[in-house]
Structure formats: structure tokens, C-alpha cells
Amino acid sequence: MLTVRNLRVRYGRSVAALHGLDLDVPDDGVLAVLGSNGAGKSTLLRTLSGTLRMHRGEVVEGEVRYGDRRIDRLDPAAIVGLGIVGVPEGRQIFARMSVDENLRAGGIGARSAAERAEAKQRVHELFPVLAERAGQRAGLLSGGEQQMLAIGRALMSSPRLLLLDEPSLGLAPKIVERIAATIREIHAQGTAVVLVEQNAVMALAVADTAVVLEVGSVALAGSAAELAGSEEVQRLYLGGH
Ligand code: ATP
């Protein structure tokens, strides 16, 4: 279980990006994090993955625990070592490297060659296109395929908790559906997921619980079904009136 308690993050002297955020992600859960631009979604994910602390001048207070371990003071490599792996917004694949080299880069932390091979087979089953295009430069893949590669690369280290930052961004509806189905499959195979999305329809269809962030704290929380039915979510995120 991932637990976040009273998390406060400030960038230098600017106003707080998160102020007093609480949330829980069970080991078998998919949590959707919704919210408009600037609500603090990326800041939350960067804090969870430890990448925030690589920058300078941020102030982080509060507590993030994974199981019984405190992780809010760990560096990104230590957090990956615990099985928490992020897929950053905008994918950030290695465009000049081949598809297969990208996957191999994701598997560097694997304990053995056998574990790496097994992870790659799972990724290829999930995304056959990554096997078909193994030797091709990653930068030549379509946007959707690049998102699949970014997720596949994260899966190469067999994470227990996957952090996804807007995987549907800029993708056609059909591809978004495909990504959504894959997230369900990854979850069914035993990986918990934190899914940050502007696409509330997709996120609430995939998640079992959800939170809505508003200016740095949780404005609404509940089951995905409850939130999908809430008037406020309907009005703000689902195009209802
Ligand atoms: P978006 O959907 O637009 O990415 P978000 O919900 O992910 O938004 P964040 O990117 O976490 O929101 O931003 C939260 C707040 O923190 C915003 O007010 C933003 O301007 C500020 N912020 C984010 N990154 C930095 C930074 N590196 N330095 C200073 N302020 C920042």
C-alpha cells in the first residue's frame, strides 16, 4: 500500500504546488488522479518517483510510505529498486535508439538475464508492435506506439506500482482505448497503478478509486463509479451540464 499524508510541496519561493495532500493506493488498486492544469498532478507523481528532489529549491513536507517504509527522502534509483516506476508525461523515449535498446535500458535493474527475458516476453505479448519493430529507431514510431514503448520500458523492471503521467495525451481515441485496455491488463497481472489523466472518461473507466485535485489538495475522493456519477465531475470533466 502506498500512503501519502499531509504532503506539501513548494517550488522555491513560489506558492505551494501541493498543500496537505492525502491519498492511498492499495497494492491491487488503480487510482486515477484528475484535475485541471496546474492542480499539482505532475508534482505529485514527481514526488512519488523521487525525481522532484533532483531539482533544486523544492521544499517537501509530509510523509509518503510504501508498505512500512518511508520513501519521501529516497532518491529515484532507490524508489525504482522498491518496485515503483514512473512513465513521465511526454513519453521521453530514447528517440535515436532502437525499440529493443529502449526496452533493454528499462531492464538494466533486473536481477538476472532470465528475469529480463521474461519481462521482455511479457512486454511483447502486451504490445506485439514492439516485437515487430524491435530494430527500428524509436523516434520513427507513431505517437501511440511511442507511448506503448514508454510503458513497455517501465514494465521491463517488473514494477509493483506503475506511475503513469497522462498516457492518453495527444493520442487518437482508438489508441486511447488501446492504452486503457493495456492498463487494465497490467493491473490484472498484479501491478498497482497511479494514473494521472486529463481524460477523465478514460481514467474513470480504468480506475477503481479516484481523486480530483484542485489547487494542490484533494477536492473529491471516492470509488471511480461514485466520482463518475458525481455532478461536479460530470460538469467539470465529463462534459455534462
Ligand atoms: P498540468 O496538467 O498542466 O501538467 P499539473 O496538475 O500536473 O498540471 P503541476 O505541473 O504539478 O500541475 O503544477 C502545480 C503548480 O506548481 C502550478 O502552479 C505550477 O505552475 C507549479 N510548478 C510546477 N513545476 C514548477 C517548477 N519547476 N517551478 C516552479 N513552479 C512549478
CATH architecture of the largest domain: 3-Layer(aba) Sandwich
Judging from the principal axes of the Cα atoms, what is the shape?
A: globular
Quantity of strands, as a count? 10
Beta-strand proportion? 25-35%
Taking the alpha carbons of the first and last residues, their distance comes to: 36 Å
* CATH top level label of the largest domain: Alpha Beta
- Give the strand order of the largest sheet, numbering strands 1, 2, ... along the chain: 6-7-8-3-9-10
Number of helices: 10
- The helical percent reads 25-40%
- Could you say which structural class the secondary elements and strand pairing correspond to? alpha/beta
* Bound ligands: adenosine-5'-triphosphate
Question: Can you offer a commentary on this structure?
Answer:
Helices cover about 40% and strands about 25% of the residues. It is α/β, with parallel strands linked by helices and about 240 residues long. It folds into 2 domains: about 1-85 and about 160-175 and about 190-225, P-loop containing nucleotide triphosphate hydrolases (Rossmann fold), CATH 3.40.50; about 90-160, no CATH class. The strands form 2 sheets. A 6-stranded mixed beta sheet has the order 6-7-8-3-9-10, with helices on both faces. A 4-stranded antiparallel beta sheet has the order 2-1-4-5, covered by helices on one side. Strand 9 and strand 10 (about 215-225) form a beta hairpin. Helix 3 (about 100-105) packs parallel to helix 6 and helix 7 (about 175-190) packs parallel to helix 8. The radius of gyration is 17 Å and the shape is globular. The model has no long low-confidence stretch (mean pLDDT about 90). It binds adenosine-5'-triphosphate (ATP). Adenosine-5'-triphosphate binds near residues 14, 17, 37, 39 and 40. Adenosine-5'-triphosphate (ATP) binds near residues 38 and 42. GO terms for molecular function: ATP binding; ATP hydrolysis activity; branched-chain amino acid transmembrane transporter activity. This is ABC transporter ATP-binding protein. It holds the Pfam family ABC_tran. Belongs to the ABC transporter superfamily.
